[in-house]
Write a structure and sequence with these properties.
The protein is α+β, with helices and mostly antiparallel strands. It is built from 10 helices and 4 strands; from the N terminus they run ααααααααββαβαβ. Helix 9 links the parallel strand 2 and strand 3. 45% of the residues are buried. Its main location: membrane. Belongs to the cation diffusion facilitator (CDF) transporter (TC 2.A.4) family. Keywords: Membrane, Transmembrane, Transmembrane helix, Transport.
Length: 326
């Protein structure tokens, strides 16, 4: 699921759209919370602030990740995006979930008198419309990249966290708005402001769950994940097709960035191939591989006897390997 330039530009559009929506509705939520004393509305205001900060961090991470490779970082800075995605997950858990649960507990312990909920309903309705628009854009763009895979499989295999983070955040935001609305209604219907505090805690628990899921996916990208199995199969097929290749011992890959893959290939060459012919063949294979898989930024092809390759240590987690005898 490597991203093309067009898809990366669309990711920016998704992030900017989510940022604009969160900034606008965040202000409205805080105003409504100040006028009505609603705990769940105040929680939603903090939720919008955290989401806005997250989009800024992801945009910053995308900009930093585009820096070209240099002597200190020969494979580029692509994983910086993965680092900031992990920071976003931590912020959602520490600030978003933490503040929501604390505010809800405080409101249960010391409930505030109820006031007219009308302004809360108006703000919630507007927020739902804006968040729904952002969510629709995120779903549409992610749906284009996932192909025939299921949603969870596509998220798990995605190498670009920007798309699925916005999708998770917007889904949590819509769920939070529904819970806030139910909490405000129930507080007035049963004349018990503590219900509003319980709604705030429920929102915090949803944010905590989202944070854990995002941290899990971001951690895998940060420590290094293999390329899609279809990409590995394509590399293996191209190398194995050369007549002078006796066998492809293994293909190990790792994503250096969402659109940058490093591939290390071990192949058993025919003993009749000379050093000069082998160099020419390797150059031809690299050209063919880059044409078939444009996201291959670095290719390492190592001539190695099959019996020696089988003695090599197993690949690290996430490296990806295929081994086949022709």
């Amino acid at each position: 699921m490597a991203k093309t330039l067009t898809a990366r530009i669309k990711d920016d559009i998704v992030l900017y759209g989510a940022l604009a929506a969160n900034l606008g509705i965040g202000v409205a939520k805080f105003v409504a919370a100040g006028m009505t004393g609603s705990s769940s509305m105040l929680t939603e205001g903090f939720h919008s602030v955290v989401d806005s900060g997250n989009q800024v961090l992801l945009l910053y991470g995308q900009r930093k990740a585009k820096r070209p490779a240099d002597e200190a970082h020969p494979f580029g800075y692509g994983r910086e995006l993965y680092f900031w995605a992990f920071v976003v997950a931590i912020l959602i858990f520490a600030i978003g979930a933490g503040v929501s649960i604390f505010e809800g507990w405080r409101h249960i312990q010391d409930p505030e008198p109820l006031t007219s909920p009308t302004i809360n309903y108006v703000v919630l309705a507007i927020s739902f419309a804006l968040e729904g628009s952002s969510w629709t854009i995120a779903v549409r763009e992610f749906s284009k990249t996932k192909g025939d895979m299921g949603w969870w499989s596509a998220i798990h295999r995605s190498k670009d966290p920007a798309g699925f983070i916005v999708l998770f955040e917007d889904s949590a935001a819509l769920a939070g708005l529904v819970i806030a609305g139910v909490g405000i209604w129930a507080s007035h219907a049963f004349d018990d402001p503590r219900i509003d505090g319980a709604a705030s805690i429920a929102i915090g628990l949803i944010l905590a769950l989202v944070a854990v899921l995002l941290a899990r996916e971001s951690k895998g990208l940060l420590i290094g994940e293999r390329a899609d199995p279809a990409v590995i199969a394509t590399i293996h097929k191209i190398v194995a097709a050369h007549p002078a290749i006796v066998s492809v011992n293994h293909v190990r890959t790792v994503h250096a960035a969402p659109d940058s893959i490093f591939a290390a290939i071990s192949a058993d060459f025919d003993d009749a191939v000379t050093m000069g012919d082998g160099e020419t063949m390797i150059e031809a294979m690299e050209t063919e591989l880059r044409a078939a898989v444009p996201t291959l930024s670095s290719i390492y092809i190592r001539p190695e006897k099959r019996e020696n390759a089988t003695l090599a240590p197993a690949p690290a987690s996430g490296g990806g390997e295929t081994t086949t005898q022709r």
